[in-house]
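Blackboard transcription, Thursday session:
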Amino acid sequence: MSSPPELSRRGTVCRGRQLILFLLSAAVLWSLAPAAAVDRLALRLGDLASPMLALQRLSLEYESGAAVLRVDRLRLGQRQWRDLALRCSHATLTFDAVHCGAARLSVAGRVLPLVAELELAGDGRGELGLTFADGGRLGLTFEGGALRARADRLALDKLHAVLAGLDADIDTLFERFRPVATLDGELRWGADGNSPARVSIDVRLFDAGFGSADGLQAGESLELAISGTARALDDGWAWQGEVEWRHGAAYLHPLYLEAGPSVRAQGRLQGGVVVVERSEVALEGVGRLDASARVELDTAAVLELELELTNADLGVLGPRWIAPLIAPASADRMYFGGQLDGLLRLQDGVLAQIDARLEGAGFGFVGAAGGGGFALGPVGGTLAWHAGASTSSRLRIGGGQWERIALGSFELEASLDGRSLSLAPARLPVLDGALVIEHLTLAHTDAGWQGVGGVVIEPVSMPLLTEALEMPRMGGVLAASLPDVRVSPGEITLNGALVVSVFDGYLQATGLRLVEPFGVASHLSADIEGRRLDLSQLTDTFSFGSVTGFVDLSLAGLELLRWRPVAFDARISSSPGRYPRRISQRAVQNISALGGGGAMAAVQRSLLGIFDTFGYRELGLTCRLRAGVCMMDGVEGGARADGGFVIVRGGGVPALDVIGYNRRVNWNELVERLQRVMADNVSPELR
Amino acid sequence: MNLSMVLTRWCVLLCLALGGMSAVHAQGNLEIDTPAVSALRQSMQQRHAQLAPLYAAGAIGLAADGSVALRDASAIPLAQRAQANSLLAAENADRAALYREIARANGRPEWEADVRRTFAQRWIDRAQPGWYVQQGGNWVRK
Amino acid sequence: MASNSVSSTVPMPSQAAPWLRRLAVTVLAVVASACVTINIYFPAAAAEKAADRIIDEVWQLREGAAAETPAAQGDSK
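(Written on the board underneath:)
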């Protein structure tokens, strides 16, 4: 197969014969001479040339049973060697045969580590056997104008050691990939009569491996079966063949592949370019894979490649082929399912086109810190990307899940152009509301994704949302208008407002910012303002006892890491205005318990047992959360000389103050206590 | 009133205005005790148990840009190379987030490149003997 | 108040004596450069300290550092 494409079939046959005849006639000449008179002979046999093989200045010297056959220059295909000598220690020349045994072959003065044997018979048969030190054998037979090469446990690296320094291209290849392999099999070259030259090959490569110096391309314990035939054309070759990968594994950065695939292909070899006209690849998880390609032989550059997938199983292709390429960092957190048909085209080694059709596909992404993650499916529709052109893609998504929230079915229509994506308005149903993407354009830069968009949340009812989030049931609705969404690497800012009407008042979140959205440090920050939240509903919802009245809330610089607050400046205070203000005995106990073992005056404590509810003038609590510690304070101006702070200032009859003394409270302990209060309905311990 | 007095007054005002801002950075520590930074530190520390043998084997090394790079994958068993690559990508995602987050935590997102440069140098300086680090475009064994 | 006094003296430069102008320019340069330097200053030393703290934690160098060093030196050249 190393023959150049420009080889012509004409003349190959007769010139092959010429060589044999020429050698034989020389032998005949010699044998006709009186044996006793000649124990020394020197013959100059001149030049020999065929398109495949050329020998320049061939000469033979014979002296007492030993012979030296010299060739000044040998050309085999495009490769050339100079100064070859075959030194036979046992040479016999008879009328119908030349035999040269236990011979040493040297090239340019270097003796090759192998034993050669040459035999030329009068019937036009010639045989050259090369036996290597490890027992590997390469036999070359010329017969009737045909060349047959047979390898028998021939070690590729031994063969290369022999041929090292003879061909720079091959040396470079060996240096880069350090291939080892043992070769069994046969290659035939020949033709009958005037029909075109034919090459057929049937070999098995085993115990094979290769590895680039950086380890990014490597294969181990490979076994390949290669068979095929080629027929000479006027300007090249037409070939067909089959390669079966029987054993071993390979790493072609970043893909890890295992034995199993096989390829049946046919094509041409013209002008130094291998053309794969048609091929069928059998690959696990793929119903059918057709490929065509054009590859430059010298540089192994892929000029063109087209792959057509039919009926591929994403469950198999996803983790093996897609995730390592598109998201290696989270490859083990992604999962796939469903069917894919597609077309992929490379032009001059660069991706030129992707067309994919999905059916019943599913995609999922497990959250970096565990949790519900994100999933979409079933997904159907088409995806298209063409280099240098704008394409449109349309997907129907049957449903989805984000953390604990289910998404309804929706359609996405996007246009892709180069590295940018623009999404047509889309409406993603969320519970009884929807997330509406009014516009979104994203561009992929070297640093990551960048873009702008606008999002609206159509009212989602709070009872459904709180139920989905497994929170205590709350009334009201959630809606948002975020007209200025900005995406930059590591950050998504959502300018606008998210409003929750809840407890007869409302909460408004502004300055929403999602930082490092896909990493372990994914966190959300926002500023939240609450106005006139009905305390009786709130305390009822969280089983906190009973408080009547209204509060305003300010939660500035709220930061949620994995949905847990890690920083904020919170202030809850009684809303201004006239309204009944009563607080139940249980609520008093709970509040004082939350105050971090905050105590009340003994006199007041005794009152607790007598009355069920108490009047209050105002209540207020602030908590500045930093580094897991909540710095507490009470109502404004409620600091006391004894270091305490007033949380509830009594008023009316009977009145009592709730006073906190612990200003530093561990946040996790506080949450734990709060959860206990809410869940168990157990009276917290009073100290 | 003469010109120099006016100018001086301007400059003092200017310096006061700017000084208020920069004084914090001029002497203080860099804020790294945010929850996001600790989440990243923890994630990287956990991953380090898997990365350490790869450093020791010379399979990966500390790159000049503050990331970890695949240096010689042949030191990793074939079947584990894809996994190692994935591990590396995850580490580099964390590192990028760490540099951004530190700059952000100090109210100076534009410091990201400086933070990255500083870390790159410190990772390299403090690499353990036997590990590979990138210096002047080449891999050097410490 | 400051802006008042400034606006009334803005035309001064053209009338000022050359030495005065030179002095003014020098003062401006010195003060301005001082301001600017402070403003773009990246706390390299603090950043190094911060980096070291994080590296200590990630590589767990604080404890067992003494035990590790001789072993590591053994197989490196």
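Lecturer's comment: Confidence is low (pLDDT under 50) at residues 11-27 of chain B.
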